[in-house]
Structures are given as structure tokens and as C-alpha cells.
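Subgroup meeting minutes
Present: P.N., E.W., G.H.
Scribe: E.W.

1. P.N. recapped why we're keeping a running log of single-chain structure predictions: easier to compare across weeks, and new members can see raw inputs and outputs side by side.
2. G.H. added today's entry (580 aa).
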Amino acid sequence: MRESMDYTILIGGKAGQGLQTIGGVLARLFSRMGYHVFSHQDYMSRIRGGHNFYQLRFSDKEVSSSKKKAHIIVALDLTTIELHKEDLEENGIIIFDAQSVKQTFTGQEYLNVPFDKIAVENGGDKIMSNTAAIGAVLGMLRLEMTLLEEIIHTNLKKKGNDIINKNILTAKAGYQYAINECTQCSFAVSMPGKNGNMLIDTSQAVGLGSIMSGCKFYCGYPMTPSTAVMNYIGSKAQEYSIVVEQTEDEISSINMALGASYGGVRSMTGSSGGGFALMTEGVSLAGMMELPVVITLAQRPGPATGLPTRTEQGDLLFVLHSGHGEFPRVVFAPGNPEQGLYLTNKAFDLAEKYQIPAFIITDQYIADAQWTYESLDTNNLVYNDYRLRSSEGEEAESAYKRYSFSEGAVSPLAVPGDSKRLVVLDSDEHDEDGHMIEDAEMRTKMMQKRLFQKLPLIQQEIEAPFYFGGEKPDIVVTGWGSTYGIIKDAVMSLSKTQNIAMLHFSQIYPLPLYEHFDYLKILSEARITICVENNATGQFAYLMRAETGYKFTHNINHFDGRPFLLESLTGEINECIERL
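Output recorded in log:
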């Protein structure tokens, strides 16, 4: 059996040096060639300087995580060489511009490529040095240039033919330099022999899911790493007639989203932990008024400003308990872009159907990470309009009560101005008509309807966790949200020698019932169960024990602001196995 091709490239440098340009173009290039691609970014909270890197992995098989070791390191500064030279794979190569980094390195693992000189001689400006670097990487891999030329044409079409041609010349010169000089290059790269793949990140997928779910209003205040969703929807706003509003703060965001929802349109807002903290009173308002709204929360390390550009899964319990008082909600945490698309659609549907807030939790790692797909199936996406519109007729209008008990758990929701109905909402406890009350009996009846009758119905809609492995595994590795890809790759690697399986929860709350898939039975019968989380306290493990009584035998927690890498997680799982 032929061993699969699997290479990692790391591009490192200061903010402002264009490493995202190099990484982004290479990722698009490999995906269009038909390779499977996974990429993630590591960047500091500054516009210029510091140390950032863009890491991509491409293979002829599916990949869904990053590795620590790299086969090619593109060093745009000296710091990249100093920090990452120990991460170089055997027979790997670091390429650098000695004049730019102001130091020369010798040895089989180094290749000096004069990016700036090549750019000036062929393009007339060293700003094109990134294009030379991209060409050099292709030359090292002995891959053809045709698709790169197409990407240059697409990216620079507004710059004119002169700039396009100069960039193509620069790329070809970098390519030829690597062909001639990299005599130690021994990369065995085979073409996949199939059509290109699409390349998408989870922020784009969430934005796409909201558009395809009929979202007509998005508002938010920019906050890393949540802004990417707003940017994506904003880029499509004119095409799909969506109002996108940058608000003055997050308090305005949640209240504007609720106002738009009250007005009859599907609305969405989003932020990160610090901004979401300001939204919590509005979340409670949505609970009392039973107004549908979808909220995205892109996590980053806290407390306070924390590490603004790093990753963490530290806000799960915060979301579960956000807003004072008791009311139902749904919480989803996609583990890849495909889940991001479908769960956003489901969040909109359940928010409208049950008149509740619905949450989509991501984090910096999963928000920025790119994946490849041959396609995304949109046939199973749903759109149901659960609101009362003017076509309902006069008889329905005369009988309308906003919080009617006669309809069961979910009362009718009319659109103000769309009929003769009087649409009343109140942030105080209210009667069936929506008018403020004080009596205990009505309060009890409203709580029964709003919470206890809705929650079981909602739980019936929650799907079972993703399961990968045999029927009776000895070891079960469990995670939620952004750990999907890394756990899957680790379990696949370890399955060669271990009877191991994975459980991944993307529909977090309410937890799935056991009727269709008894995940508790699988956990209870396993010898070792490990919960993997990017937080310090094991918040999902805590939720599982609180809701089901089940306690994992081991926990693996990272809280340094960095994502799990394949070699380190595999090693930590092996340590758990060896301790028993």
C-alpha cells in the first residue's frame, strides 16, 4: 500500500511582512490542485512587528489538524529561524533571504533565496519579494506554475496587466532559482489526479450559513476573533439585501438585533468574551420576551482582555449561564466549516421555532483555520417561517394573544405593522396579552410554558455526538467544538495500535438524548475515557458530570492560548494509557 503524501509548510515573520499573503496563496493553490489542505494562524496582538506564523498542511488524504514538525520553513526574519529550527522535519529545509535577515546559515537544511533581489530584478520593486517566495516554494516541490499564474491574474486584475506580468516574472524567477539551487530538495509530491477542492474557514461557513438561513440583519462591534463573520456577511450584504451595522458597543448590538427580530426579520449579532459580557442583560431580555436571535461567540483567553489573538475554550459555562433568570437556549459549537454551515442554519431554525436565543461558539483557532472540501451539500438546509403574517386572515387576528397558553409551549409571534394584530412585548413578567403582571399564579404558568414545556421539545431536536471507532472501544477520547479535527487525526493515528474511538459534541446544550445513540453506554463500558479541552477547568467535563453524572477517567487541558498539535496530543493520550 502506497504511503500517503503529507507535507507541512510554515511561513514566519513580523506582522506586516506579508506572511498571510504567502500562506493564503499557497493554501488556495494546493486546494485548487486537488490536495487536501488544513491551515491555522498564530499571530500577536499588534499591527507591525512581533512574531507571527502561518502554518499549512497539504496531503493527498484528508487532514484536519496541524503538526508541530514542518518540512519547509519560509523564514522572513531571523526570529523565525531561531524559534522554529528545532521544529524542522528530517530532510526539511529552511529558506531565507540572507540579506533580509542579515545573517547567513549553511548546511543541508538551509537554502538562501534572495527574495528581495529577485523581486527588484524582475518586478522592479522588492514589494514583490513575497511572490518570489511563493515561486521558490513551488520550485522546491517541483510543482507546475500554471495555477499560480491564474491566481496572480485573479488577485491583481485591478492593478493592471503591467503589475500582473511583473509578478508572474518574479514568481517564475523564484521558481527557477529553487530548481537550480535546491539540489538537496527530495520532496516526493505527486499530483492528486482530481479536480480542485474548495477552501473555506469556519467564520466564512458561519456567515454563509446565516445568509442561506435568511438572515437580514447583522450587527456587531469589531472584536478579534469574531469580526470575520461580520466581514463575510458584510461582503455579501448588497448581493443578498442584508443590513449590516457596526454598532458603538455590544450593548447596542444585542438590543438592535432584538429590535430587528421584533420587527420581523431574522437577526444575528456576535462578539468575543469581553464584548459578550456586555450583552448578557440583552440575552435575558430575549429570554423574557421570547424573541428569536442568533449570537456568535468567538472565544479567546480571558479574563478581561486576556490574550486577544490567541485561542481558548474558556467561555462554555459563561454562555450556558449568561443572562439572569431561567430560560431555555441552544448552544452549538462547530468543529469544522461543514458543521459551521449546518449548525448556523439549525440555530436560526430553532431560534425562530422556539423563540429563544441560539448560540454558535467558535474560537480563534477554528475561526481562522482553513479546510478543503470537494463541495458542501446544501440540500438539507431548512427555512421555515414560523411567524404569523398578514395572510393569516381576520379571524386569526382577533384571536391573537402574544403569549397564549392555548398554543402549548410556543405561543404565536406576529409581526408588528404586518397586520391588524396588536403586538405587545414586555421585559417584565406578563400575561397572555403581553401586559405586565405581579401575581404568583401567572408567573408560575409563564415559567412552565417558557422553560419546562419548551426544553424537552428542544432536546428532541438535538442530534447525537459524532462517533468514530469500533463498537466496543477500550479508549474513548471526547471533545467539543474546535477539538474535532485534532482528536480525529490523533485517534486515526493511534488506532493502528489501540482499540480507540472518539466522541465529538457540536450540539452542546441541551445535551443529546440517548434514544438514538447511547453515548453514555460507550463511555461507561470503556476502560479509559479522556476529555480534551482548551481550558483550565474542564468545562465540558463538568457539564457532562452535572447533566449525566458521568465522570471521565482522564482530562487533557491546555490553556496557554495555543491550539493542540497532533504530535503533542497523541503523546498525551499515550501517557494516559500508560498510567493505567
